[in-house]
Structure formats: C-alpha cells, structure tokens
Amino acid sequence: MGKGLGGAVDGIKAALRRHDKRARPGGLDCALADRIDFLNPGHWDALTAEASFFLSRDYRRLLERHTPEGMQLRYALVYRDGRPIVALAAQVLEVRGNQLANLPDSRLRRKALQQLGTRLLVCGSLVSSGFHGLAFAADEDPALLWHGVAEALYRLRRADRLHGQIDYVMIKDLDEARHAGAAPLRDFSYRPLTTEPEMAMAVRPHWRSFADYLADLNSNYRSKAKKVAKQVADAGYRIERNADAAAHDARLHALYSAVERRASTRLSALPPGYFGALAQLAGAQRFRCTLIRNDTDIVGFITTIKDGNRALGYYVGLDYAVNATVPLYLRLLQCLIEDAIELRCEELSFGRTAAEPKASLGATAQTSHVWLRHRLPAVNALIREVFTRVTPDAAPQRSPFKEARTIADED
Q1: Residue 53: DSSP 8-state
Q2: Would you kindly state where each structural domain of the chain is located, as residue ranges?
Q3: Residue 2: which H helix or E strand, with range?
Q4: pLDDT of 40-60, one tens digit each?
C-alpha cells in the first residue's frame, strides 16, 4: 500500500516537473514565418545543406506556389545564444473525418464523418514521406534540439490562433534511430505512435542496370518479373523513361487524382502544375518520370526523387480500368528500381502502401514513427492509453534474391 502511494506521489512529482519544464522558456529564441523568404537565408541554408531536398529553400518556394488546398505553410528557426540550431518546416490544415475514412458506399456515414473536424499542425511534409521537416546543428545536445523543436511548435500553435484553434501537433516520419533520440519530447507531453512501415531496399553496388538486378533474383522471382514486363508489352504499351513531366502535367495530375480518390487517408491533394514544376526544379540529376503509354494515351506514371543517397518512389498515377487487366502498377515499381540504379543511389524507398508487391521485389519493412500531442492534457493521457494498444499490421517478408532463398521460394 505504502509503495503504491509512493509510486503515485512520484508520478505526480514527475508530471509537475514536466509541466514546469514545458511552462518555462528554454533559453532559446525563435524566428517564425509564413514564407521561407521571410527567414534569414544564410541561417536556413547552413542548417539544411546536408538535409533533405524537401527542406531546400528552392523546394519550399515551389510548394508555396503549389500548396494543396486548405493547407498553410509555417516555418521556424531556433537559436541558442544567437546561433541557429534548428530549422523547422510545418503545415497547418483542417482535417475532416471523411478524409480519414474513404466510404463512398455509405452516404450517411460519410456525412457524419464530414461533420467531424480538427486543425492539425504537422512538422514534416504531408506531400512526401520521410524526415523532411527538421534539420539540426551537428554539435548540439539532442535534448536541447528537441526542446527547441517543442518550443517552436508551441509558439507556432499559439501564433496561429487567429486562424482557429489547433488541436493536434504531430512530428512525422522518424526512423528507429531518430525515434530513440526524440525521447526528450515526452517531457513536452508528446507520445510516439508506430505507423505503417516504409518499404525500402538496398541498391547493390554492382548493379549497373536493371538486368543486373534481375540476375540477382532467384529463378522464380526473375520469371515473375519478366512476365510482368511481357504482359505490359503484349498489351500494346511501352515504357517511356525520363519523360518530360512538364509537357504531360495535365495527364499526370488526372492519373494521380484517380489514385488519390481511392486512398483511405487523404490529408492533402497536390494541385495541377506541381509535377511539371517539380521536374523543372529538381532537374535530370535528381528527378525521373516514367510513363506507360501507347501511341494515343498515357495509362500510368511514376516519379522518382533522388534525396541524398536515397531514391524515393514519389507519386504514382494509374488508369484503373487498364490496370485491372494489365499489371501497370507492378511494372512501374520495376521502373523505380531502374531509376535508383541509374541515379547511383544506395537505397530505394518504395513508400508505405502495397507492401506485398514491394516485398516481392526485395523491399523490407523499416519501422517508422510519429510523435503526437493534443493541446489538452486529459486528451494526451487518452492518446497515451490508446496508442500503446495500436500496432500496425506486420509487413510481409519475402526472399527474392539468390543468396536468401528459402524453402517457400522453392515451392
């Protein structure tokens, strides 16, 4: 009994310490902005030079010109003793319940969900998957850096009240290493959530072409890969690699929208013009667009971004009527591998959905996390209880390469 009471007292004291830490300034300064050009460019560039392409000022300007409807962009620079230590890119958007549950067959449920709404502040990118919202100074204490992140997000949330109350703050897409380093966020009432894993594959150094990749597959998976390519060709379609995305932007957007409408979660939709602008900004050394087409129509596309030493499978678009009989999607995934090899990347990220076909190509699941906080302490306690019970579905495991053959592959 006494031990239980003592534990409760210790818990209360710990909660009070966390509250005191949250309520006191951390000795840091923040510059907040609605546009990237309102911040000191030298300070932003110094922090983001080795970070993601999606944090570059050029890309941020592009996104400001092609912002999804209902989204507002926010930025912050955090300083310690006048020195920039954190660069932060975020978005504010209002989310309706029907954006989180795609229920075209239920008018009543769709109407009910549409009545539910919340405003969300997201640190990271809602139009890309990965750690694309933060850059840190290299020689600072991680606890201080995450304190700076929490303080900047708090200030952004409070400054945004003229536009409406922000209910949730999210920091998205942390891998295992970054997730472990983000533990100081618990002191600011953030709680971690394990999300759907990223499917990724190492690009082997000796691969110089797609043929080299095929040669490393065991005979069963190699035959399946060749069959997919043959089925697409036999249906009268060809692959057009390194296509001009700007010239085909309208068609790409229509195909992308067809995929977007089917997504179970639809937080943001890219506007027309985005793909063409991105292709022109990133250039051939960083961007690839692959089409599946015949002489009259484009029926599928996929884009690849080189981000550091990684290739990111970015956005895909499909004619679903054609895909019902011709394996367009599988063929486009193969093209991602060809892009990653050509761009001389060390790793290829296939993204988070459709894990089965990606695993069959050689991808494995990489654990990913977000950290979430609600403005009300009572709701934070509920989040903690709910999220500890939520685990994503296990991703399939396949062994398509020769040196990793299993009995299952032999069957």
Answers
A1: G
A2: 2-188, 199-366+398-410
A3: helix 2-23
A4: 999 999 999 999 999 999 999
Give me the pLDDT at residue 259, please: 92
- Strands annotated E in 203-286: 238-240
Per-residue CA distances from 240 to 228, 236, 337 (Å): 16, 13, 15
Residue 407 in tokens: 């009995």
Show Cβ contacts of residue 211 under 8 Å, excluding neighbours closer than 6 positions: none
| 199-366+398-410 shares the fold of 2-188 | yes
- Quote the pTM value: 0.85
Residue 377 pLDDT class (50, 70, 90 cuts): low
The residue type of 112 is: A
CA distance readout (Å), 30 to 148, 151, 306, 401: 8, 8, 31, 50
DSSP letters, 159-171, are HGGGG----EEEE
Helix or strand (DSSP H, E) at 373: strand 364-374
Q: Give the mean model confidence (pLDDT) for residues 223-227.
A: 97
Instruction: Give the β-pairing of 347-351 and 191-202.
Output: antiparallel
CA gap 132, 88 in Å, rounded? 9
Chain segment 139-167, per-residue pLDDT in tens: 899 999 999 999 999 999 999 888 888 88
pLDDT at residue 164, rounded to an integer: 81
Nearest Cα to Cα of residue 203 among 69, 309, 88 = 309
DSSP string, 280-326: HHH-TTTEEEEEEE-SS-EEEEEEEEEETTEEEEEEEEE-HHHHTTS
Q: Look at residue 200 and give its three-state secondary structure.
A: strand
Supply the pLDDT for residue 262.
Answer: 83
Distance CA 111, CA 116 (A): 9
Q: Fold for 199-366+398-410, please state it.
A: Aminopeptidase (3.40.630)
Per DSSP, 349 falls in state E
**Confidence (pLDDT) at 352:** 86
Cα(43)–Cα(361) distance, rounded to whole angstroms?
A: 41
CATH architecture of residue range(s) 2-188: 3-Layer(aba) Sandwich (3.40)
The reported pLDDT for the residue numbered 18 is 53
